[in-house]
């Protein structure tokens, strides 16, 4: 049967959960999906600082009980979801290489950037397979393919593991009506990124502009000459969850202004 959905990015009638959806990339994704017609639920540890039109549920997804409670509440109140955007995550560990990282650092980074997504996937997949035409998006990072030992070792490893998990899950669910895709942003203008630059500048006792230049130099720079806007990442996610991308699953999409110096 021929498919005629290639230009259809309308999400009317769909329900989405965006974790870490109160600021930065998560907020931009939530706003984008809602503008396309989706009913959007957002989750984070703390409520949005500004008024939001999205349904908010507080949850710390590094806590297994809170993750299960979030899923139960959504399944009971909304009858499940069609789109799960696993956006929660971040770089929380110190730089300095292997000797600066304790077991606790590694465990915390894996909980935040890998296990939180695995937990929610496990909670929602049974309902999503029953609904069919569902999509899971894992927000990763180009750091997964370009680890910097002195800056983001544990974070990069956790995101690399997320990429491998996402690929395997996509293969498992491909025949069950659930697509699984990974989006890997590069440097993006978000509050966590701004704080990271400010902290690095303070540690090096240099201006923030110089800190940013040093950080980008370590990764080879950004050919497009600027960081991404959160809304640009959101636009990619919108396309991937839409009917227009109905034949896409298992792929990793870097959105980095050409920063990764590799072919694939």
From TrEMBL:
InterPro entries: NAD(P)-bd_dom_sf, Sc_DH/Rdtase_CS, SDR_fam. Pfam families: adh_short_C2 (PF13561). Signal peptide: none annotated. GO terms for molecular function: oxidoreductase activity. The keyword Transmembrane does not apply. Keywords: Oxidoreductase. It comes from the Bacteria. NCBIfam families: PRK06523.1. Belongs to the short-chain dehydrogenases/reductases (SDR) family. This is Short-chain dehydrogenase. It comes from Filimonas zeae.
